[in-house]
Amino acid sequence: MNKKIINVAIIGITGYGGLELLRLLYNHPAVHVVSIHNTSDHAEEISTTYPHLKSMYNLTPIPADPLHIMQSADVVFFSTSSGISKDMAQPFIEANFLVIDLSGDFRLNASEYATWYKKTPAPQHLLDQAKYSLADFYQNDSHYIANPGCYATATLLALAPLAQQGLLDEENIIIDAKSGMSGAGKSLTTSSHFINVNENFTMYKANHHQHIPEITQQLKQWQPNINHIQFTTSLLPINRGIFVSAYVKLHSELSADSLQKIYEDTYQNKPFIRVMTQDQLPNIKQVIGTNFADIGLTYNPDTKYLTIISVIDNMVKGAAGQAIQNMNHLFDLDETTGLELIAQYA
Ligand SMILES: NC(=O)C1=CN([C@@H]2O[C@H](COP(=O)(O)OP(=O)(O)OC[C@H]3O[C@@H](n4cnc5c(N)ncnc54)[C@H](OP(=O)(O)O)[C@@H]3O)[C@@H](O)[C@H]2O)C=CC1
Ligand SMILES: CC(=O)N[C@@H](CCC(=O)OP(=O)(O)O)C(=O)O
């Protein structure tokens, strides 16, 4: 679809993901944000609530009315807590209106969603119309894009070059993932208290994180014999960033040089994936504020384990940035449009 100016509506504007969409879309040359939506009746300009937006946006959030949104916008982003879009997106799906959903509501099949999110899934006829879309491997033919989760993005990009060639030893895929606090969204919980996060390091949801089935489902599409992964998540005392350490074994022994080449070949035409030079491992800071995923490899010939490090900004590549990359694909724009950003280093 080719359109000069894309009119955008955002539902869930007061959350971290919604605010990040606003930040990134401000510099998108083909986008006009026409409306922003929250749940409160209390109307005040977004820049009053969030002064960092002063003089950038003159918009006031209003409750979402699907009919009104479909009349004034070309695409709607859902940046809502899980359990919202599965109900609220129905009129958009039935009208074949373009939706990009940052939440987990349309990423899994009904029974996996019920098991992992512990919520009633969207009806099957709606789920059937959604397409999971890892933007760097975009192959979409749907009006409804289920944008991947943050941990899932970093993990899948770490494993894609090997899984796509069927090289992974399916019983030896170990993922140790860590996230900054913004990954948890704005709601306050005991585990998000300053005292519990600052100068601390905590593993959580060990073996039952909701991104496990999302990762497995995509890996399986690339390498069908993968049925499970060992996956743990921990909280870093930082605002943004995900650091994934993947420890994998391969079916056949490959040299460090060949492994490096597999990654470089897979990602040579992917502008947002930067493969580090051999044995150079990326750090979180080098991607903060950007849509990059930086990936580095190191192979241990004694243990035969390959360690893959993948770093992203959870708010950008793991959420709003990837959602905009998916929007660019939908509207036949260059995927980098509005997303050419250099990390905020110091
Ligand atoms: N933070 C991250 O790094 C990532 C987040 N995600 C996913 O993206 C989504 C948004 O995340 P994030 O911004 O961090 O979450 P937040 O908790 O910060 O924000 C959630 C948003 O959902 C809105 N919302 C809640 N209930 C309703 C409702 N009934 N109707 C309409 N809007 C509602 C809230 O609006 P209000 O305040 O007005 O009630 C708020 O704007 C989540 O599903 C999250 O899992 C995905 C990848 C990464
Ligand atoms: C640090 C932190 O708490 N991160 C969240 C990120 C997951 C997320 O965004 O969840 P969905 O996209 O699956 O809804 C978590 O681990 O649950």
Automatic annotation (TrEMBL):
Residue numbers annotated as active site: C150
UniProt entry tagged with the keyword tRNA processing: no
Every Semialdehyde dehydrogenase NAD-binding domain range: 7-145
GO MF: N-acetyl-gamma-glutamyl-phosphate reductase activity; NAD binding; NADP+ binding
Catalytic reaction equation(s): N-acetyl-L-glutamate 5-semialdehyde + phosphate + NADP(+) = N-acetyl-L-glutamyl 5-phosphate + NADPH + H(+)
Localization in the cell: Cytoplasm
Location, primary (coarse class): cytoplasm
Gene Ontology BP terms: L-arginine biosynthetic process
Keyword list, A-Z: Amino-acid biosynthesis, Arginine biosynthesis, Cytoplasm, NADP, Oxidoreductase
CC per GO annotation: cytoplasm
PROSITE patterns for this protein: ARGC
Membrane-spanning intervals of the chain: none
Cross-referenced Pfam families: Semialdhyde_dh (PF01118), Semialdhyde_dhC_1 (PF22698)
EC number: 1.2.1.38
Associated pathway: Amino-acid biosynthesis; L-arginine biosynthesis; N(2)-acetyl-L-ornithine from L-glutamate: step 3/4
Family of the protein in this entry: Belongs to the NAGSA dehydrogenase family. Type 1 subfamily.
PANTHER family linked to this entry: N-ACETYL-GAMMA-GLUTAMYL-PHOSPHATE REDUCTASE, CHLOROPLASTIC-RELATED (PTHR32338:SF10), N-ACETYL-GAMMA-GLUTAMYL-PHOSPHATE REDUCTASE, CHLOROPLASTIC-RELATED-RELATED (PTHR32338)
Role: Catalyzes the NADPH-dependent reduction of N-acetyl-5-glutamyl phosphate to yield N-acetyl-L-glutamate 5-semialdehyde.
Name of the featured protein: N-acetyl-gamma-glutamyl-phosphate reductase
Source organism of the structure: Leuconostoc carnosum (strain JB16)
